[in-house]
Each structure stands twice: as C-alpha cells, then as structure tokens.
Design goal:
Elements: H1 3-21, H2 26-51, H3 59-85
Helix pairs in contact: 1-2, 2-3
C-alpha cells in the first residue's frame, strides 16, 4: 500500500469516526461528511490515473456534483433548524415532534 492510499484511507476513516462519535452539533456532522466526500473525490480522481483508464474520468465530476448538492442541502437544514430550534445541537432535533 502506498503512502497516498494510506492517507486517503486514514482521512476517510477519521472523518467517519468523527461522524460516529462527535454528534453534538449539526455543523460538525456536516464537516465530517464533507471531509469524507473530499477524500473519496481525491481517491476517485487518482484512480483512473493509476490504472491508465480514460473511461472512468467522469466519475469524480459526478461525485463532486453530488457533494455540492449535499453541502447545499445540509446548510439549508442547518439554517432551518437554527431558526426553528435556536441552536444546531443534534439532541434538540427530534423527528417525532415535527
């Protein structure tokens, strides 16, 4: 395993652990999701270069598009929950009360 693979795997693992264990604020969950998407984007960008296959070069752009949509939706949810509940703490959000 090369050093670049190890760094991408460790970045994805650390951000997923951060998402699993630090769930107090919505903004920290969104940042962990964005770091997971960034590590996946970089890994998918380097994969066709390593394998020398030009057919998979569209996949990172599709991933980047979904990541931008996810970020916009997450920020809209953050603004809406802050306006209605007064803070971005995840323990204040309950789907049964909506």
């Amino acid at each position: 395993m090369s050093l670049t693979h190890l760094s991408f795997y460790s970045a994805f693992t650390l951000s997923s652990l951060g998402l699993a264990f630090h769930r107090t604020h919505l903004i920290s969950a969104l940042l962990c999701l964005e770091s997971m998407m960034l590590s996946m984007y970089i890994a998918l960008s380097l994969w066709p270069i390593e394998n020398q296959t030009p057919s998979l070069t569209l996949t990172p752009m599709l991933m980047l598009t979904f990541s931008a949509c996810e970020a916009g939706t997450g920020l809209a949810m953050l603004v809406a929950s802050t306006r209605t509940h007064g803070s971005d703490h995840l323990h204040n959000l309950n789907l049964l009360q909506c």
